[in-house]
Design a protein that fits this description.
Elements (H helix, E strand, L loop, with lengths): L3 E9 L3 H13 L5 E4 L40 H22 L10 E3 L2 E6 L1 H14 L9 E3 L2 H7 L1 H4 L8 E6 L3 E3 L1 H14 L3 E3 L2 E8 L5 E7 L5 E11 L5 H8 L8 E12 L2 H4 L5 E3 L13 E7 L2 E11 L12 H5 L2 H13 L1 H12 L2 H11 L9 E4 L3 E8 L3 E5 L2 E5 L5 E6 L7 H12 L4 H11 L11 H15 L4
Parallel strand pairs: 1-2, 1-11, 2-8, 4-13, 11-20
Antiparallel strand pairs: 3-7, 4-6, 5-6, 9-10, 10-11, 12-15, 12-16, 12-17, 13-14, 14-15, 17-18, 19-20
Length: 492
Amino acid sequence: MNSEETVDVVLIGGGIMSATLGSLLSQLQPDWSIRLYERLGEVAQESSNAWNNAGTGHAALCELNYMPENPDGSVSAAKAISINEQFQVSRQYWAYLVEHGALPEPHNFINTTPHMTFVKGAANIEYLRKRVEALKGQPLFADLEYTEDLERIAQWTPLLAKKRNSGVKVAATRIEAGTDVDFGALTKFLLRDLERRGGQVQTNHHVTSLKRKKDGTWRLKLRQTVGQTPKVVRARFVFVGAGGGALALLQHSGIPEIKGFGGFPISGQFFKTTNPKIVALHQAKVYGKAAVGAPPMSVPHLDTRVVDGETALLFGPYAGFTPKFLKSSTWFDLPFSIRFHNLGPMLQVGLKNFDLVKYLVSELLASRAKKMKALREFMPTAKDRDWELITAGQRVQVMKKDPEKGGVLQFGTEVITGADGTIAGLLGASPGASTAAPIMLDVLSRCFPDRMAGWEPKLREMIPSYGTNLSDDPAAAEASLAATAATLHLSA
């Protein structure tokens, strides 16, 4: 290979975001040359790995943090509806790929798993009632069930009710047609198809330099992690989908759009069990309410997971702290990310989020016994010997400059694009992987605005609801849910 080879697209990072963008571009513009470079020996080993994320298929069916209670006590459904709309875009795209043989049998990466919420106490029950009321009549939440009956909850999933104090008031919701998604497997399948279409996926390649040239191309210096052989590639377009490593690369690129952005890393742990007797009693993803000061990603949940054909249960997450931005990176990620332009916003975030700092300290000091106590809030019969503690992936929360507040901690994802559209990157976390398709469509519209009209017919073929909102049309929502359910072998 020519050491100065020029290609159309370089994707940095072998996760679900790069895989989705590569998949889209390989079909929208099949004549373009696409290269993906992953630092590790395999793709999907960081946040996209099945054991490094919750894998819920975030559709806001059960995640209460997407519908926070306002100061006046009201509850808005807008964000939950928006996230569900985005998930439906991903789901339509996956169904299209399955129909056209680009993805294998869907049970290899997606499976029906009911999504539930579960709360205790009068205040939380009142909140859940208001949430249900706000979602009532929404086409994408049409099958939402609500109960305060412990016996009915036991029918939905016995582990929540078994040996629970019947004197404590509880409430739950359920949507039976939720999903569990193995994003690690999905990433690998997408990249396998990308290679079939002519794209190249190269692991053990670390991007060490990223510089824009006068002709508008980007010159990337890479080094093979095995043997340290250097390589130089030029690209007309670069996407930085390197998870926690994206901030450093975007800073290195020198684009002014990254100024003011910082990152705050939060690690996590989960309890995991594969005990078949326990797993058989819980087929659901059950989300509760976050502790005061806890980041949204730390909402406690007891989840059914299907990974490599094996069913397990996860409970957590338990937040922790390390200055690493990736599980496999260095302890210097956080200090090396600090620049003059983001120091002020980062300090402002620290001063204004004392509850978060307090929460993280308490989590770091928590013993295994205290963590088991949190599990027993969901599953009263949990026994220590059945559960192993595993370390999840790193999440880097976005901190950015704010004209009024100086700096804000942003939960969610942030797309950063250069002014000329030749580079884009993604920062942040949840809902992340579940909304990969619409996020990458946003990247396309920002970076290739002159091509979107020409691509639109193909986009509508791949994503029938493209350009519309299913929640505005009950008949269209029902038809889309039924069609994708049939193709992906899910419960309608």
